């Protein structure tokens, strides 16, 4: 029996082929991983490798074709209040205002609370995401970034044991994104939640995660490695880049995305039975000379910026 808080074992996802003679699409195959209680795990990989498919299964909205997933040793069979989800596409109820959308989740979570308690709690989270002035607007009257923030407020406000975040900050401008990242760190450290988050932003993953899962390109994708992020907490966006390990980790992740994610696809992993991602510590792996060289590399070149957000936004949200 597993001791991880969440355990996925031998998960495979196949979708039926679309044309007349089309073969089924095997998105990923034989994926196994665990999430420890209170851990913050990010997953990165190229567009289409199957990250959202894993997320949907953990949310209980879809099932693997084969394999199992359990949370606290109970099989995940459908959606549940112990799991909160923020999707790329906001998923708000269009006929409710921003406040009512958040209240809806809070009411479901704490049925015994008075209306006043539910409203106060909901307002606290809407304020946290900077929406206190527009709480009576419906989703159609809000910008994309605002809708995303309502969705974030709703998920955070219900304090789920497992927070599932599918590119939650994708629609936000850099300033708002920074503020909400800070709030997420605060909430996570206070509430001991377990967080599983998809992001395309390498820097964001390093700032937030205890471990970063690296997924190879699909089809037949797999989570090849789990990179340990040993940077001390609390982490600050402004100072983390000055840490001597930052660029060693960052360069490792970028190299995976640019080169190894496709190279590893064709490599059949050795061994039988369950294949968990290989734990990797890029800092320990690199020689002292190598670490110094990478730490002094300039972060401000155009190519560097392109690599940070390596998937074009249109592809992500298209
Ligand atoms: N309902 C479906 N029917 C058929 N194919 C699907 C379905 N849902 C997803 N796919 C395919 O499965 C693959 C994985 O999709 P998924 O959305 O999980 O990728 P992703 O890694 O989250 O991508 P992105 O980073 O662009 O969001 C893609 O090739 C996609 O086209």
From TrEMBL:
Ranges of residues in domain ABC transporter: 6-242
Region (Disordered): 265-318
GO molecular function, one term: ATP binding
PROSITE patterns: ABC_TRANSPORTER_1 (PS00211), ABC_TRANSPORTER_2 (PS50893)
Highest taxon listed in the record's lineage: Bacteria
UniProt cross-references to CDD domains, sorted A to Z: ABC_NrtD_SsuB_transporters
Keyword Protease: no
Location within or outside the cell: Cell membrane
Pfam families reported for this sequence: ABC_tran
Topology in membrane: Peripheral membrane protein
Gene3D superfamilies per UniProt: P-loop containing nucleotide triphosphate hydrolases
Compositionally biased region (Polar residues): 284-309
Main location: membrane
Keywords for the protein's UniProt record, in alphabetical order: ATP-binding, Cell membrane, Membrane, Nucleotide-binding, Transport
InterPro entries: AAA+_ATPase, ABC_transporter-like_ATP-bd, ABC_transporter-like_CS, ABC_transporter_ATP-bind, NO3_transporter_ATP-bd-like, P-loop_NTPase
Family matches, as PANTHER family: NITRATE ABC TRANSPORTER ATP-BINDING PROTEIN (PTHR42788:SF7), TAURINE IMPORT ATP-BINDING PROTEIN-RELATED (PTHR42788)
Family affiliation: Belongs to the ABC transporter superfamily.
UniProt name for this protein: ABC transporter ATP-binding protein
Source species: Vreelandella malpeensis
Native organism taxonomy: Bacteria, Pseudomonadati, Pseudomonadota, Gammaproteobacteria, Oceanospirillales
């Amino acid at each position: 029996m597993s001791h991880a808080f969440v355990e996925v074992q031998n998960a495979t996802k196949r979708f039926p082929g679309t044309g007349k003679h089309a073969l089924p699409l095997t998105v990923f195959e034989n994926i196994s991983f665990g999430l420890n209680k209170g851990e913050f795990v990010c997953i990165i990989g190229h567009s289409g490798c199957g990250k959202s498919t894993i997320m949907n299964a953990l949310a209980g909205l879809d099932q693997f074709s084969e394999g199992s997933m359990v949370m606290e040793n109970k099989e995940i069979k459908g959606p549940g209040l112990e799991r909160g989800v923020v999707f790329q596409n906001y998923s708000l109820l269009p006929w409710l205002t921003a406040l009512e959308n958040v209240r809806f989740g809070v009411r479901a979570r704490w049925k015994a609370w008075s209306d006043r308690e539910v409203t106060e709690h909901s307002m606290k989270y809407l304020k946290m995401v900077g929406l206190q002035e527009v709480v009576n607007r419906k989703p159609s009257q809000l910008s994309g970034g605002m809708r995303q923030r309502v969705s974030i407020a709703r998920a955070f406000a219900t304090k789920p044991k497992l927070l599932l975040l599918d590119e939650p900050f994708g629609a936000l401008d850099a300033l708002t994104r920074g503020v909400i990242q800070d709030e997420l760190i605060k909430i996570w450290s206070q509430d001991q939640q377990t967080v599983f988050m998809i992001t395309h932003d390498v820097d964001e993953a390093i700032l937030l995660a205890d471990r970063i899962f690296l997924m190879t390109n699909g089809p037949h994708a797999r989570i090849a490695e789990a990179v340990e992020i040993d940077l001390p907490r609390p982490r600050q966006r402004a100072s983390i880049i000055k840490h001597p390990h930052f660029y060693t980790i960052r360069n490792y992740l970028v190299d995976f995305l640019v080169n190894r994610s496709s190279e590893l696809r064709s490599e059949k992993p050795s061994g039988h039975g369950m294949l968990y991602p290989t734990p990797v510590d890029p800092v320990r792996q690199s020689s002292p000379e190598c670490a110094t060289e990478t730490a002094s590399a300039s972060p401000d070149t155009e190519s560097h910026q392109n690599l940070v957000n390596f998937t074009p936004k249109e592809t992500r949200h298209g």
